[in-house]
């Protein structure tokens, strides 16, 4: 009954027509999921007027890092992105990052770790990458936003989305592909009703992942060697963001309650005891070790994803596009904000208020697109005396300008650019009209 | 993270941008779901070369039945179907059904119950409706197939789908719309991993519904006043069809385990205690009484469907289309089967076997499209002596015929009709070629 079939379309002939029961576990490969993400990426890339460039900085002799660098180069090129691998010494890594930060032709930076023996030093290096080029989403600000469920960088304008760390986001994308996210529900709540166990609570993947899933509405059992924590947005997901609660539950208590089990245990020896799984659970492994025994898990799971590496690389490109978009958006919004202030200036010069533009200026200041400039904002406008022909004309132009300013913030970059000419014409005409009136 | 957004598309501006948390319970109306089903129905209707006609038989003074009859008339007409309401006396109902059964211009029959004081007599009336016109899916054969998870009427040809009873099917369609059916999984297994409580175990809706859902892979708690039964296809859904197990569980034990709660309690007084629901449960009510307190359930559910009546009518039209399709399919398959036998006859007359056609004949006999005819099947063919030019030509034609017969059963009605001419030409040529050889 599940599939929507046209009665007149050829009916699929099941191999066992009496019951039409196929394999009960659907195995989904990372390649399949990555393909669907890369198709989206390709579509979005076409909308850009330039070719995004990713710089990879390799400052170690680690074979894994090298392989990963080569693989990212290959994926970039295959998908229409520029990739520039810069092999540098440990001593030069800091300077290389700073150089790439300020290079306008670089849109994203990825640094291959580990570099230094001390993880703390690597973390310091991580924070050197400019926010607007941090394709891996590892900057403190991005991580903070993720935990706080803050999804935009420029509230209240909301033109720039906060970047999410690649591997946790890859797991999210896997769960979206598997339709665990229910798109019937409102964006931000689409895991409501789902219980998910995440085995791994590292700072790099496990904990951010648990937070992401809980912020999207799930009840998450986050498991590591120390025990189990529960991440949720509370009963009825009434809270804006997740909270963490300690519990005495054991892993074996979590399994029977979990719709989804996500594993990331870096150990060849570790295998999930599939007999404890809820019948029909969805199983996803992001560890490079196989945390599920393939044949065994297929006896119990409804869906099994054995690895997600290729999805992570696709997500990296997606993040790179987001960075490009954010950059273009910032430029466009800054320009718009300046224009709004200019509109206010023209009007206030003649003692008139233009509310829609003023609203944009206020928001732009809050979003960080414009500096506070108290003199402009302080001007108190007052209506002109009614009656004259010029007054009528001015009123008409003012209405046009108000309308334009109430529309502009809702437009996308291209549409905003197209309105530029109209805005210039209006401001000029208005200035003239004011001057006539005042004569 | 859940929605797939193009980075360059205008970003949706959440009303509360810090967290973008909308209402946590999505209320979905039957109208919305019915619309999407009726759109499918409209598409399928276009493929038919005639206008299906539904006959409604009203043999009671029941106000509800009258209203329902009027509503079905309205829905039929609005959606491009003919509807003929026949008001008859109780004494004439039997004859009226039999008349409609044999009337070639009638494609579906719906009888409005109750008619007689005894439910047994109404059940007898129900079974009078011809299988191929039973739009409500209440014939014993359909009900049997549903419980047995037999999805076709003409196994092993599998051209005619078995009809499902309207209200249980409407609930299935609701759950499909709500994406509880996961289309990532194989058809027939798409509820694997889902736990569903159905409160109502009537023969008309509750029990068939529990069976349908379990046959599709769910674990179903079927609840009525006598207690709880568990319907499943067993651990790992390894069985072809559901089994029923008794349990000592109480309703309150089922709630916390259930992803979905479906209610059909015919009582104004009955309300589900929403505090017992699993947080984020999906709640669907098919009773004409509201089994959930609206404001209360929205505090706990992720999705709430307050009623399904309009979906049931849409499903009725869908069933009517299926009946039309089955009728056309039967005609086409019968014709094909006769042609296959003719091909065998032509060949066997000359002592040659045509395996693909023979396979079709065997299947058609098993599916009931053709009668056994032992003399034809008993003919043992043998290859012709090789060498002559005529032999080569005959071989070529035989290969063509074999190919055609291996393709024909996979084609849809229209494609089968198109191949008719080719088949006639081939048989004629083959007969001639055989005769030349034999001279």
Largest interface: A-B, 90 and 90 residues
Rg of chain A: 27 Å
SSE string of chain A = EHEHEHEHHHEHEEEHEEHEHHHHHH
**Distance between the amino and carboxyl termini of chain A:** 78 Å
Helix content of chain A: 40-55%
Describe the structure.
Chains A, B: It holds the Pfam family THF_DHG_CYH_C. Chains A, B: Keywords: Cytoplasm, NAD, Nucleus, One-carbon metabolism, Oxidoreductase, Purine biosynthesis. 2 copies of one chain form a homodimer. Chain A has 439 residues and is an alpha/beta fold. Among the domains of chain A are: 84 residues, Rossmann fold; 111 residues, no CATH class. In chain A, 44% of the residues lie in helices and 12% in strands. The first copy, chain A, has 15 helices and 11 strands. Chain A has an 8-stranded mixed sheet with strand order 1-11-10-9-5-6-7-8. In chain A, strands 3-2-4 form a 3-stranded parallel sheet, with helices on both faces. In chain A, helix 9 links the parallel strand 10 and strand 11. Chains A and B meet through helix 1, helix 6 and helix 10 of A and helix 1, helix 6 and helix 10 of B.
């Amino acid at each position: 009954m599940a599939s929507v079939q046209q009665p007149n379309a050829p009916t699929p002939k099941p191999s066992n027509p009496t019951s039409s029961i196929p394999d009960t576990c659907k195995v989904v490969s990372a390649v399949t999921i990555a393909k669907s993400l890369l198709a989206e990426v390709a579509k979005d890339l076409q909308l850009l007027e330039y070719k995004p460039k990713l710089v990879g900085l390799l400052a170690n002799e680690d074979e894994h890092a090298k392989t990963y660098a080569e693989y990212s180069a290959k994926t970039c090129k295959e998908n229409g992105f520029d990739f520039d691998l810069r092999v540098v010494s440990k001593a030069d890594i800091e300077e290389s990052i700073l150089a790439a930060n300020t290079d306008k032709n670089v849109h994203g930076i990825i640094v291959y770790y580990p570099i230094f023996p001390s993880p703390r030093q690597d973390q310091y290096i991580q924070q050197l990458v400019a926010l607007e080029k941090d394709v891996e989403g590892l900057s403190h600000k991005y991580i903070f936003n993720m935990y706080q469920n803050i999804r935009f960088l420029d509230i209240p304008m909301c033109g720039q989305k906060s970047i999410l760390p690649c591997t946790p986001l890859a797991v999210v994308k896997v769960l979206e592909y598997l339709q665990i996210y229910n798109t019937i529900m409102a964006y931000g709540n689409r895991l409501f009703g789902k219980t998910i166990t995440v085995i791994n609570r590292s700072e790099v993947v496990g904990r951010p992942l648990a937070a992401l899933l809980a912020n999207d509405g799930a009840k998450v059992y986050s498991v590591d060697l120390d025990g189990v924590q529960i991440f949720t947005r509370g009963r009825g997901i009434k809270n804006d963001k997740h909270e963490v609660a300690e519990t005495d539950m054991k892993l074996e208590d979590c399994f029977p309650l979990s719709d989804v089990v996500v594993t990331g245990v870096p150990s060849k020896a570790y295998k999930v005891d599939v007999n404890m799984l809820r019948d029909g659970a969805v199983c996803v492994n992001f560890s490079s070790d196989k945390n599920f025994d393939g044949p065994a898990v297929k006896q119990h799971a409804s869906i099994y994803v054995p690895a997600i590496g290729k999805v992570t690389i696709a997500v990296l490109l997606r993040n790179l596009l987001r960075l490009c978009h954010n950059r273009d958006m910032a430029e466009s919004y800054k320009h718009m904000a300046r224009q709004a202030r200019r509109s206010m200036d023209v009007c206030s010069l003649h003692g008139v208020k233009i509310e829609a533009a003023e609203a944009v200026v206020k928001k732009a200041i809050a979003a960080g697109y414009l500096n506070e400039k108290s003199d402009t904002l302080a001007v108190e406008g007052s209506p002109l005396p009614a009656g004259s022909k010029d007054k009528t004309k001015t009123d008409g132009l003012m209405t046009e300008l108000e309308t334009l300013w109430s529309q502009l913030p809702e437009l996308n970059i291209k549409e905003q650019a197209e309105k530029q000419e109209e805005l210039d014409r209006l401001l000029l005409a208005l200035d003239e009209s004011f001057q006539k009136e005042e004569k």
